[in-house]
Write a structure and sequence with these properties.
The chain contains seven helices and no strands. With about 180 residues, the chain is an all-alpha fold. It folds into two domains: about 35 residues, no CATH class; about 140 residues.
Length: about 180
């Protein structure tokens, strides 16, 4: 088993795409393992309630309930006469609990999305820094080789400068509605 993991790691080291996929899979697995028992239960409930099986079960239960309480099934004595107050109570309570479970799952997913957004931002900032460094190195090589860089508008010079993330954030804050 260990040999197989080692070969997989070697293959991932040679292939950046595989390495990235492995990193994403690892992050997703860690996020799933870090869920609290309540979040696991909530996820399982929302997974089931979002299924066709859940809809079919409800349709069958409601059909039986209505038929039984309208005396359409001879061997079942009505227990919740029209307008089906007990059924209304059960469905209302179920709706409240389902809403709570959905909110628990949504809160967990929002926290996970926030972590991903922070990771994306960090990677974007690192990529910008790397590209700025590459552009600066490229300009330096061009100068050493005597290659003239056409930069009438100053765009290359601006792009070769480090991006001030705080200034960009403030500018967006000021200009966005």
């Amino acid at each position: 088993m260990r040999d197989q993991e080692h070969r997989h790691k070697q293959a991932a080291d040679l292939d950046p795409t595989r390495s990235n996929v492995d990193a994403i899979v690892r992050l997703e697995q860690e996020a799933l393992l870090q869920r609290s028992p309540a979040e696991r239960m909530s996820d399982a409930i929302t997974h089931f309630t979002g299924s066709v099986a859940f809809v079919i079960i409800h349709v069958l239960l409601f059909a039986f309930w209505v038929a039984a309480n309208l005396s359409l099934i001879p061997w079942v004595r009505p227990f919740d006469p029209f307008p089906f107050g007990i059924l209304t109570l059960i469905v209302s309570a179920e709706g409240v609990f389902l809403a709570i479970f959905i909110l628990i799952s949504q809160n967990r997913m929002t926290r996970q999305a926030d972590r991903r957004a922070h990771l994306d931002l960090q990677i974007s900032i690192l990529a910008e820094q790397e590209l700025t460094m590459i552009l600066q190195m490229h300009q330096s090589l061009c100068r050493q080789l005597g290659v003239e860089i056409k930069d009438e508008m100053g765009e290359v010079t601006r792009l070769a400068q480090r991006t001030d993330v705080q200034r960009l954030e403030n500018e967006l804050k000021d200009r966005l509605p």
